[in-house]
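Archive entry: two folds, one per protein. Generate the first.
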Amino acid sequence: MSWQMAVVGALGAAQYKQQGAIGKANQASYNAKGEALDNEAIQIEKQKDFDITQFNKEFQKLVGTEKVNRAKSGVGYEGTALRVAKANAEEAQLQRNTIAYNAQIAANQKRYEADTARFQGRMARVAAKQAQLKTVTSTFTSMYSMRQPGSSLLSQDQGLAVAP
């Protein structure tokens, strides 16, 4: 094997190793992005609970204020006042459901983005493996074209002795 073939082989091996390292690093980066997006989904769900709690506090203040005003005016808890209270309670439940639904949609979107990031990481790793395969192929092709006519790349033909 000539020194040129050794250099080509060494460079090919170094490139192969570097492509593998790049693929692993890219995959790790996408996995970290996926983890961060999963954490955002968890935060959205926690924020939903906080928002519903805050809404309930505000709604209870509204109900309390409405009861005080009704008592001051001498109106009983019947007829129109009862219908208004019932409509307010229904609207409050609808609002709670809307907060929960919107939070669930946002959290699901973040989880989808996290899954997509991890998938991109796997694809980056596959791309690196493909680049490594291309490097091996081109290295051996270059070495093959450098060989001496009639010689083998793997070992010099030394002939086999056949026992009588």
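Generate the second and append.
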Amino acid sequence: MVSVMLAPKYWLLLFILTHCHYGWAEQAIQWQEFDIHYTTLSSRLIPANVAKLHGITRADNRMVTNISIRKQGQPVMASVQGTVTNLLNQQSVLDFTQVMEPNAVYYLANQLVDEKDTLRYAISIQPKASDSTYLLEFVRNYYR
């Protein structure tokens, strides 16, 4: 996992990834004392200069997965690993990059998606200072 400190001019990216709901879904679950937020969205929605800074490939067939963990409203660092499996049962490893800012920590991964596909995500999240790991599983249907 790569760690990146986010400059103030890129906070807009984090707002887009965590607060906007046009064309993608942001969800949150509570597990133990943690709030886990997860989002997937088209990589085309990320400005080119921001995508380049974070190593995100922008293309019609690329999606971005965003994970953030909070405890009592405060950001929590974690170990985040996962896979995504398509309808043909082809599995890809998600390579998460850690993005840090003063009041948040985000984990971003870029993945391929076919023109029309259903993707099954399986993401292991182990918050720092926790002995437990949460397995986040969800499904997304994509249509271009």
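Annotation attached to the second fold: DSSP finds two helices and eleven strands in the chain. The radius of gyration is 14 Å.
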